[in-house]
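Progress report, Aim 2. The chain analyzed during this reporting quarter is listed below.
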Amino acid sequence: MFKKTLISLAVASSLGLTGCFDSAGDGGNANPNYKINNPAFTGKTWPVFNPLTSELPVPSDLQFAQGPGADGTLNGSAENPITNALDFMDGSSTTAQFDIALSGSIDPDSINFTPVLQGEGGAPVPNPQQNVFLLSLDFPGRDSLLNSGAHYTALIEKLVKNNEIPAPERTSFPGETPTFDIGLAFQAAQANPGAETVGAVFDFNNEFRAEVVSLNGGTDNVLRITPLRPLDPKKKYLVVVTDEIKDNAGDRIVGSPSYQNISNPDEPLGNSALAPVRGAIQGWERLASGYFSALTNNSRAAAGLPPLTADNIALSLTFTTGGTEDVLEAATSPAQFFYKNSIVSTRQEAIARYLAENADAFEQLSPTQQYGTLAQVAGQAQQDAEEATPSLKQIAAGTAANLAGNGADFINPAPRTITPFEPTRVPSQAVLGESANSGTIFQAGIELPYYLPVPTETDPSNLSATWKASTTVGTLIDASQGNDAGTTPPSDKVTYRYPFAGQVTTVNAPVLVSVPDPDAQVPGQPEGVTCGLAKPWDVVVYQHGIFGNRSHSLALGNQLGSQCFVTVAIDLPHHGIAPKLATGELDPSLGLSVDKVLVDGEFVDSPLPMSERHFGWGQTSTGAPARMQYSTNVEEALGSSAQFFLNLANLPAARDNNRQGVVDLLNLNASLVNLNAIDLDNFDGDNDPSTQAIADVDVQADGSGGSNVYFVGHSLGGILGTSLVTLVNGAATDETIGNGNIVQFTAAAFVTPGAGIAKLLENSPSIGSRVLAGLAQSGLTQGTSNLELFFNVSQASLDSVEPHNFAASLLNSGTQVYLNEIYGDGADRATQDQTIPVAADVAYAGTYTAPLGMALPAPLAGTEPLIMQLEAATITGDGATEAGANVVRFEAGTHTTIIRPTDAAGTAVFADMATNIISFFANDGGAIGFNNGSFVKQNDPTPANP
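Predicted structure tokens for the chain:
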């Protein structure tokens, strides 16, 4: 039915280029006359593409900075939040929607994006009428950007200079030849047809959808490519739009005047700066034509349709996705970075050696043979290196260890000093009320390495600061590799190509500890079985949500304490106990502040040697930074938690606030071993936390201790917790390149979490209006392409902490996960979670999960999309759980029910949530129980039955 080829084309040398068009060439940025009034364009509609006027889809590979000093980020500037974010991005988003503007209106019904249809006998066949393509490319060397002829020429020169190979006669060499991932899947299904290989081909239908939206006052004037699951990180994608799409008059669309001029080698360029763009477009079109020839046109011939050629292409371009897990994996264990780099360098060096000897013969091969040859050469080299002694992993571990031994300031989480403050100990009932379970609460300080600059009492500018690349690590790398001084890092940006942030300072952050009553009877156990007899106790790490603080752990921690769990909580960066709540009331947890204490009706400085993580900065009613004001009068109090965390004016700062939050939790995890020496319950009564009659907990990083460790994340705590648990139970566990300081989580609970962060914010009933109002002040309003671009780069900025990007790895880690959701009653959307949207697309539950207000559909935003990506099994009653993720949906309650239920229904839901989590942890994720089950949704939602 189709050619048995790998569908490769030797165009890699044109796939990576600069987006700088403002200086080169005759006439500078003069826009040539493209004769739009000629018959070829009059009355026609086209995808907007004009590099000289910056009218083209963003981001794309045309925005990647190139050259010797390139740091792997896109070209940007400090001009506005969008261009500033581009300057920090190491690629396009894996989850954001990608828009292609059109010069007029098109017919939505003419869009056909499904790659694979079912043929005779159920066999997969290419869709003959597909007219919107999103095609991922595979490069044998495993680097989607650095693979050109220029790259290999430089690499061969380096090998010659180092006397590793003899000097070849040639002075220039070809680059890699890529292939299409879907082509590989088709070939595998042909060679070995079966459920797995055939299913892998059909699975490409679940990757994206194309749809038409209306922006900027137009109608059906934007073609949107929407991922339905995360795209692969660090992967190049080819976008192709053909002229079989129809405009609203029923005519075929055409390429834009600029696109047709640039792509046609027989047409003079209006600006010489466009020469590399011409080369790129011609390369993209050769790739597309190869795909048409090898796959699509075979189906078209069978259907009696004419073949597609380059003449049918109205637009082609590539974009390359950024790194997702890489920065935080390297933070977890630096050896992870050196191992991944060694795979690429091993494969590419093998390719370079082959090309140095065989370039002439290589150029005579067909594209399919070229890809196959380079893939075999690179694959064999990697296999040999993996099996060698020392192996790639062993070398990577040694590299990281040597650098650390010479003073590299890697993040590398390790046990940090935890200092308990006995005077802060109070009975749980004194804080939570007489109905609370008995137990105690106390605070400690933990010394956390901090990679963000800290504001002073008079200068708030560092509240918007970002991580900076470590020059200490870079200097050591350069010295070890013989590089010129200053080569590494290439800039101050922290990216997957250089993921090491430099430590700025150390902060002493408060830790809130909820401790069981050792004399309390354990519910459900025989008389006389107390928590004191159940030592060593298990430990739960709790992370609060957006605008919250560590005190949000108390309600659940009190319930966990009744079952002999210790709960430990810290604040996220820029969070903490503050004068007021985000809702405007006085913060009821002020008595736990480590900044201030109330003495004779006045707030005075606390004597405790630690600080709230908001650094004492809040905002005025206009959003201006101001020192927090503490008062018992709500009108005089100023400042609340996290007013500088969600920094939409500086998206890289928002990204790094989140990254710092995950790193803090990694350090807390590694520091739990230091709880072993602390008298958590003051059982001996000497008020000295350094002495204890019997160890309360026994946490050991190697798992040999008597205490298991669990995680609970609420809201944002669950969002970041997805990353955290994935790292702890994944990258950290590798015997060679992991981190032996990290303690595995036995199970994890994510309470009302979400995903698709950028569009989640837009579709949040409680947060969205505030976000949109702030953006509107900068001219970014709903219904405009600028706002949609802002959400695109926002998501790209946050992709390194985006739950969707960690979901597959979390599943692969084998971790038992509990999720819950305030789904609502299925009819009244006011009963849904008003902070984290259930979903923002009718595909989940019809109009019940439609986008909020004027927002456009966003199938990856909300809780249901995360449930889907985690493949969570629905749980409705007591019993065994499924392996992996499990979800309980509630028909009542609110986003803050886990913190403080406010009515009878909320109290019932809280009781179920607490019972769910306690039983899930008590059974190490293998079983679950309910308190009442009164408001548990009994079915999976569908559009027909929400």
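Residues 12-27+42-140+177-324 form one domain. The first strand starts at residue 98 and ends at 101. These observations will guide the mutagenesis work planned for the next reporting period.
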